[in-house]
Amino acid sequence: MIDKFLLKSITFFDSLDDDILEKLIAVAKLKKFVMGEVLFYERDKNSEIFFLHKGSIKFYKVDRFENEIFLYKLNSNSIIYDISKFSDFGDISCFSNAEFLEDSEVLAFDSLKFIELMNENSAFMNKILQESFKMISKLQCLISRDVVFDGTAKVAHMLVNDLKNFNSLKKHEIAYMLHIQPETLSRILKKLTRNGIIEIEKNSVKILNINELKNIYE
Fold it and tell me: Which range marks the domain in which residue 102 is found?
């Protein structure tokens, strides 16, 4: 059951006034998913806009050889964008498959009503635009990383910008996310350790020289 206090507890919604919150509640459902469950496939047609309240979710595509290609992941308190829902792109969509990485909770809003409310309320519109710009910036960084960076630069970038996540994941999961082989990841970490840039204790990386790490990809 969704109530105003639930939305007020979420940073994305907490600055909105009671009137818009009540209208959002009227068009929303709280859905629970288990790890490994798929929220949607890229060719699915659905009439909802999703907000990840708790948990984490990965986005990926599958190539013509049935290889899974990781794109990015989102954590709690993130809106899940399909930009075609917010514009007049018609049937043009470059969205992906979405699979939960852990047990999660999602707020599902009727997309037409959601966009209606967004267009009626400037504060809500501004919030959506801010989040859109953050997502665009994030995706630009991901494109740069995958197109320009070599394996060492990818690892260095993740260590500097997402060390907590790096240390929480298994090595094969990190390699999958960075589009490198697990053996390549191991070689890179050994090289960074030999050079005194990082140290590894109990499978946890500690950065010794962050400037050297940044110099690898900047």
Answer: 4-146
Token pair 């690892």: residue = 155
Is the distance from CB of 186 to CB of 171 less than 8 angstroms?
Answer: yes
Same domain for 110 and 185: no
Same domain, 186 and 139: no
What is the number of domains present in the chain? Answer: 2
Specify the DSSP element, H or E, that contains 83: none
The tens digit of pLDDT for each residue in 159-178 reads 999 899 899 999 999 999 99
Q: Give the E-state strand segments of the chain in sequence order.
A: 28-33, 38-40, 48-54, 56-62, 68-75, 78-80, 97-100, 104-110, 198-201, 204-207
Q: Are residues 183 and 201 in the same domain?
A: yes
pTM of the model: 0.78
Q: Is 184 found in the same domain as 131?
A: no
Least-confidence region, from 2-16, 166-180, 187-201: 2-16
The two beta strands, 97-100 and 38-40, are: antiparallel
Render pLDDT for 70-80 as a digit per residue (tens, 0 to 9): 888 899 999 88
Check if the beta carbon of residue 128 is closer than 8 Å to that of residue 62: no
